[in-house]
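Annotated sample (chain length 281).
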Amino acid sequence: MDKMKAMSDILVTTSWAEQNLKTEGLRFVEVDVDTSSYQKGHISGAVGWNWKEQLQDVLTRNVASTVAIEKLLGQSGIDKDTTIILYGDNNNWFSAWAYWLLKYYGHQNLKILDGGRLKWIAEGRDLTTEVPTPKVTEYQIDHIYEEYRAMRDDVVQTINDSQPYGLVDVRSPDEFTGKIIAPPGMTELSQRGGHIPGAKNIPWASTVNEDGTFKSKEELTNLYVSHGITPDKPIIAYCRIGERSAHSWFVLKELLEYDDVRNYDGSWTEWGNLINAPIER
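Output written by the structure step:
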């Protein structure tokens, strides 16, 4: 699959998005690291999702439940035939998280705005503070795709099993080596710094250009293959809380079409706090 096919099937350009803001059957959704950004201005017609309050269950430290996602999609005017165009700040960190989560819960019609909020604003395209009021739908999740998600025991298996795995740590080199536990300003911490044994450090940022758009298929393929992350292996990506690794999951699973790719959303805040879990520095 070349970049142009990816652009039409999975990614949309800012110019395409601007031309299709009022197209029936589309719903633009903004998901930002900075949850106040949407209120300051967003793409016309886009609804805003708060990743802290709507895409996770803070009491169980888990992804949002089936019931919560059904309610969120219904209130956003989304049914199963709706094509969701996701975008956000920080080069689409949490829009990629939302993409992965919606795939996990079985929504099929998904795209990401290539370059996200950064590129949209850099090009001087219009923002609005008007919040849409979509017609509420009844949304029912029929199937959960467990194969898109890695749990703690799956990661343990990569260490103990003789089968070759591709374990990808998408954090910064300083986090990978344990020099720092979390980037400045981030509050979700662990007791220890370092990385899971056997992991390859391929930072999420190495997959995007300066304008926030994704690199070409050839560049992305060379990046991962050079680190031994090849499509013949089961792949697990992780970061600190799962959003950056969702971004890399999107690259590997959707853009490069690797067959077996899972996001370990427990990531380092789980592994770094486990008793008797091995780490390397």
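Annotation: The longest strand covers residues 26-31.
Annotation: The mean pLDDT is 94.
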